[in-house]
Amino acid sequence: MTPPPTLLEQPENRSAAVDLALFYQVPGYQDWDPSVIVSASFAIFFAMIVADAGYGVVILLGLLAFWKRLDRTSAQRPWRRFGLIISGSTILYGVMAGSYFGVSPDQGSIWARFKVLDLNNFSAMMMVSIVVGVLHLVLANALAARAAWGHRKAIANLGWIAALIGGFVLWLSYMNDKAPAPGAITMGVGVLAIVLFSSERVIKRPIDWLWRLIEGLQSLAGAMGAFGDVLSYMRLFALGLASASLAITFNDLAVSVMHTLKGSGILFGRLILIIGHVLNFALAMMSGVVHGLRLNYIEFFKWGLPDEGIAFRPFARKEVQE
Predict the structure, then answer these.
(1) Can you tell me whether residue 42 is helix, strand or coil?
(2) pLDDT tens per residue across span 171-198
(3) Where are the domains of the chain?
(4) How many helices (H) and strands (E) does the chain have?
């Protein structure tokens, strides 16, 4: 039997979020609406990948330059509002990272007080990326459990939440030489729930209990996938570091040319600054869009929206030309 088509409805000012959610996959009819979650997480991921307040200002200025042009149709207006969210989150994260076109604020300045992240602190930024990944996948399983509540599948989703959190706590315990018991117990409870409740097989014969157990054990093959999916969020740290490092490199190269060459050094230095930052900005925009969406469409949808539906197409009168 063909399932009913899926219709995602949001207020007009959030219709851009619906377009973003439907770009890759249509949720199943019984699933939940991912549009708000996808748009919010994409804005966060984009900001973490660009990781520069100066580039965020450039995005904002470009948006303001086309502000009136984007007011022509009702379909364009939500996208300019979403552009404000993207630019605002990029500026905010760049201020927190203390990067302004690759330049760090001087110690003692008011901007230095807002710097709470050090992109060169690899261990801390790796931890931030992993925490974001675990929270994102936990949220996906929580929403999937809510949509499937009343079925065994919902308990399996809760089991994956316990396994993800337990595995993370267990990893922290080994990193800090602490007792692994809390993380191991939480992960063990999660694994048990996955094994017992992943199968939807109806028990009609005693042998069905064995098949349900086998199917539950087979679902544990997703454990390696969960580990790999969490590690996929490391790209947030890697790409953000690459963007910041390139900006610093072009700045240092321009300053070096200005000091080395007399007279023409200023011209060549400025050219290096302009060309270098334009190139880095373009790469950051491309990486932010591609990988920001990838983490939503691949990792998040995999755990939160396993079923694919059919998009709702309303009836419309069409004129037939003879």
Answers:
(1) helix
(2) 888 877 776 778 889 999 998 888 888 7
(3) 12-145+223-304
(4) 12, 0
Question: Could you give the CA distance from residue 199 to residue 196 in angstroms, rounded to a whole number?
Answer: 7
pLDDT of 263-280, one tens digit each?
788 888 899 999 999 999
Residue recorded with tokens 């609406």: 33
Number of Cβ within a 10 Å radius of residue 21: 25
pTM of the predicted model, to two decimals? 0.89
Angle, helices 35-50 vs 264-294, to 10°: value is 150
CA distances (Å), 86 to each of 11, 91, 150, in order? 19, 9, 37
Per-residue tokens: 164: 């993800």
| Total residues belonging to the chain | 322
State how far the Cα of 29 lies from the Cα of 33, in Å rounded to an integer.
10
Query: Does residue 50 contact residue 284 with C-beta atoms inside 8 Å?
Result: yes
